[in-house]
Amino acid sequence: MTIHNLSFTTCSNAPARLHMSLRTATNIPALLVLGLLACKPEPAIQGPEPVAPETTREDPGTTTGPVEPQPEPGPQNITDPAPSEPTPEVKVPTDPAPTVSPTPKPTPGKEPLPAALNSKIDASCGNDPGVGTPAKPFALKTPDGKDINLAGHRGKVVLLNFWGTWCKPCLKELPEFDRLYRRYRKHGLVLIAIATDTEPEKVLEFANERKLAAKLALGGEPLAEQYASTSFPFSLVIDDKGQIRGSYRGYRPECAGKLEQDLRAALERLP
Fold first, then answer.
1. Domain assignment present for 104
2. Residues 210 and 193 sit within 8 Å (Cβ to Cβ)
3. Domain with 263 in it: what CATH number?
4. Angle 82-86-89 (CA atoms, 0-180°, nearest 5)?
5. Which helix H or strand E contains 224, and what residues bound it?
6. Which of 6-15, 50-59, 250-259 has the highest mean pLDDT?
7. pLDDT of residue 101
8. What is the 8-class DSSP label of residue 156?
9. 63 in a domain, yes or no?
10. Domain span holding position 24
11. How far apart are CA 1 and CA 21, in angstroms?
12. What is the pLDDT of residue 230?
């Protein structure tokens, strides 16, 4: 019989080695069983469960762990809003309004002048001799025999026109002046048309034909000579103080606007 030396190392953590000397061959199967039993692992000792390390708080914006889900917002009540306090009114300081000078009130009882009839103004008109000097006084007769004089019209604006029934330009100009007179007479204008005629018949005939409203005078040639005018007709704008404000010699239709302007300026100065 052969002697076998078999060595088995145990499967435990013990340091010792087990030497077994067997002298019998017939017991080999038994030895194998013993070896297997010797290598059977020892039952593991269950230790305490591992504890998860505590998560260290980091700076905002850095996520190290799982993000907890945020609760979904509930439905908003849009039909019954929470009462809010009224916003206080804020008064913003504003600059004071600019001071506006009051418009001067017209003189009580004085109506404003109507619109001018002539819009074209020729500045070269109305500057003939006599402007700025006192008007010459006169005392004449009307076609119906009454007295008429300049002094009796002090305080009025007088348009003094020298004309004659023999002067064709005069017959064109006088109706135009009469139109101005009708427009401004209630504002203080007086039109005195002094004819060089000494007989009233032709003067009245022309006046009635043209339905003149002007005040008429006869025999004005000596007075016209005092003004030394070489043109007929000629006219003067005399203010309420008796001063000549405009002098127009000859019939010049282009001067109608300037003459009306002189009249209006004198009428505006009336008290």
1. no
2. no
3. 3.40.30.10
4. 160
5. helix 221-226
6. 250-259
7. 41
8. S
9. no
10. 4-38
11. 14
12. 85
